[in-house]
Amino acid sequence: MTINSSPVEPDAAIITKFMNPPSLTSEVVVRFPGGLHMRPADKLVRLAGGFGATIEIGRGGEMMDCKSILSLLTLGAAEGDTLQLAVSGPDAAEALDLIVQWFENPNLEQDSAEDTAGVAE
User: Fold this and answer.
1) In the chain, what is the straight-line distance between the N-terminal and C-terminal CA atoms, in Å?
2) What is the 3-state secondary structure (H, E, C) of 4-37?
3) How many other C-beta atoms lie within 10 A of the C-beta of residue 41?
4) Residue 89 has what DSSP assignment?
5) pLDDT tens-digit map of 44-67
């Protein structure tokens, strides 16, 4: 019996798939009065931070990390602007769904602000 001791070379497509998983993408419209200012940006950072996925948002090819409030504020997204989301990682589908729902319902941002105001009293 002969054992082949030559190393097995992995398929490049398999390596690429695991090193660069495909991104899930979607477009969202900023519906917050005043745009993506400090309060909604903070909420978005908190939502994104709850996931292990890499979450980026941007426009015109300029993508920013959704887990960084400074990056989000740098976007300067105004009310009515359309932004692209790109999410990759183990829980990408859940992250994308939650963030898209949050952008579609601007009252979620208002509700969370009211909840926070009630705590301060």
Assistant:
1) 80
2) CCCCCCCCHHHHHHHHCCCCEEEEEECCCCCCCC
3) 23
4) S
5) 999 999 999 999 999 988 999 999
CB neighbours of 37 closer than 8 A, spacing ≥ 6?
73
Would the pTM of this model clear 0.85, i.e. be above it? no
Task: Provide the token pair at 39.
Answer: 């309060």
Contacts 24+ apart (CB under 8 A), 57-66: 57/28, 57/83, 57/84, 57/85, 57/86, 58/83, 58/84, 59/83, 59/84, 66/99
Angle between helices 107-120 and 92-104 (to 10 degrees): 90
Q: Please, are residues 24 and 51 in contact by the beta-carbon 8 Å criterion?
A: no
